[in-house]
Amino acid sequence: xxxxxxxxxxxxxxxxxxxxxxxxxxxxxxxxxxxxxxxxxxxxxxxxxxxxxxxxxxxxxxxxxxxxxxxxxxxxxxxxxxxxxxxxxxxxxxxxxxxxxxxxxxxxxxxxxxxxxxxxxxxxxxxxxxxxxxxxxxxxxxxxxxxxxxxxxxxxxxxxxxxxxxxxxxxxxxxxxxxxxxxxxxxxxxxxxxxxxxxxxxxxxxxxxxxxxxxxxxxxxxxxxxxxxxxxxxxxxxxxxxxxxxxxxxxxxxxxxxxxxxxxxxxxxxxx
Length: 272
Fold this sequence. Notes:
Structural class: mainly alpha
Shape: globular
Low-confidence stretches: 265-272
Mean pLDDT: 88
Distance between the termini: 42 Å
Largest sheet: none
């Protein structure tokens, strides 16, 4: 498990690059539906966000100034939530899809902040100020998981219809994945078995990418929404492993602190 979850940063970085390419594609061909649904539909923002995503993703995948980049990327997604996704929620509160779009943006931003927490930083004051909010990353991601799971139960038959026909028991799998999302979110939030939760959640998102999204992309290669949905699923896979790695590092840090604060063994004191 340890070797797999350490690859989460690379997977996440590659996905951010891929989302940037999708945005450039949409801007180039003037598509009316943004490939990444939280970015405003206009050529300028399409090109700007595309270039920014590609640069950020390459930095994260190559681990080059990645803590600063991940922190800023989280703020970018927060801006998408506040100025793009949240107004859609207010405008269409009865539409369950707008909540999913909002939580996708918030989850990716939370994962970027969680990644920043796992990387060494500098002593610069501005990084210290901007980086304070990154501690909320795992908890925001956990909240998004619970919302995703709740949506699964609210529209369970819609979710079941997305499962390929060759997989039997589509309704069962819809309920199971909804339960898994909620359980994982709770585990991460209360920091109990969170390493395993992140690891297994990443496996689940990877299976979604391979079994659900890849066939849809292959069936409609010119639809940027299918591409972005597939990349988001893969990004959640890498991000879940980032959360698992964060849990592992946090556990190791707590163990070292406990060991350093523990009293000296009695038999050693007697010998001295």
